[in-house]
Amino acid sequence: ELKEMNRLFQTGKFQLFVLYGRRRVGKTTLLTEFCRNKPSIFFSAENSTNQMNLVKFSQQVFGYFNESVLEPFSSWENAILYIESKSANRSLVVVLDEFPYLAEGDRGLLSVLQHLIDHRLKASRLFLILCGSYMGFMEREVLGSKSPIFGRRTAQLHLKALDYYAGRGMLDFAPPEEQLMYYGIFGGTPMYLGRISPEEGLAGNLK
């Protein structure tokens, strides 16, 4: 997954990348690793008001561009246009994590994105990532045929739990038989596998 995202970034073209999957499956970790050593603005939305999310996003944007005395953006359109103009046709990753919170807070946001992509962003080098855990919303409102941004995404990824062969890489402290038991009990969710303590043994971890 990381290799494919890096390949897209290296094209130097505009990207609208949609990442979705259930909670604790590793989406934010994947995005954090992707943004490492790249110019990036990483914003995790909160289940709050649209105004509060916009204020916090404004602070991150101004911090990235070393601006400190500007008023918060009045709209998401203004915020994205500011980023597009300030990036000056240079590659820049913009992550909107927990995107459903933003779209539910501003019902016109997806239409705004559609207009901006069609008229401004597709000529830029922005790598815009919309990420969400609310599977129904992402599949219906972002990826669905009735979505305003349908046909605008350049790539998408449904991130799933690790299969056994990948998951056992987090269990290399245990013999093969125990690796199989751990995976059979806890599944392939990286967060759960990461909480297994080598010192506790199988019975201790189950407790």
Summarize the entry for a quick read.
This protein has 207 residues and is α/β, with parallel strands linked by helices. It contains 11 helices and 5 strands, in the order H-E-H-E-H-H-E-H-H-E-H-E-H-H-H-H.
Tell how many strands the DSSP assignment holds.
5
The value of Rg in angstroms is: 19 Å
Question: Helical amount among residues, as a percent range?
Answer: 40-55%
Neighbour order of strands in the largest sheet:
2-3-4-1-5
For this structure, the quaternary state is single chain
Note the overall shape: elongated
Q: Per DSSP, what share of the residues sits in E-state strands of 2 or more residues?
A: 5-15%
Assign the structural class, choosing from mainly alpha, mainly beta, alpha/beta, alpha+beta, or little secondary structure: alpha/beta
Distance between the ends: 34 Å
Features:
five-stranded parallel beta sheet; 14% strand; 207 residues; alpha/beta
Describe the structure.
With 207 residues, the chain is of the alpha/beta class. 46% of the residues lie in helices and 14% in strands. The protein has eleven helices and five strands. It has helices at residues 2-10, 27-35, 50-64, 76-86, 99-105, 109-119, 135-142, 164-167, 176-186, 190-194, 201-206, and strands at 15-20, 40-44, 92-97, 126-132, 155-158. A five-stranded parallel sheet has the order 2-3-4-1-5, sandwiched between helices. Helix 4 runs parallel beside helix 6 (109-119). The radius of gyration is 19 Å and the shape is elongated. The two termini are 34 Å apart.
